[in-house]
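Worked Example 4.2. Consider the chain below.
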Amino acid sequence: MSHEETKKHLPIIKEFVLPGTTVHSDGWGACNNLGNNGYEHRRFIHEENFVDPETGVHTQGLEAYWSRAKHKIKAMYGSKLVPSYIDEFLWRERFGKTQTNLSIACYSIFRNIITDIYQVI
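Applying the procedure from the previous section yields the following structure tokens:
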């Protein structure tokens, strides 16, 4: 991920994730500077372990969520309504579930990524 992309996503993370929070990642580039921005950043590499052997932390749930979102988005390729389809997907995923700050941050990041990819407003 480029420095510009990291700069774009960091304000979203800062908006929804409290300073001092421990963030676990699998090396996603947008997280590279979290340690320098008031967060405890712990990284694990999937090539070594899918689950961190020391903490038991993993990103498998989030990756499954993103996989389901991409499946929905690919079905709508080329549509100017992609943000609406993302909204619908997220609504269906969250129905009956508690919304967390992390899910809000992920929603914002995913929506920005998809908007950039499909160049829609």
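The chain has a mean pLDDT of 76. The first strand starts at residue 22 and ends at 25. Compare this with Example 4.1 before moving on.
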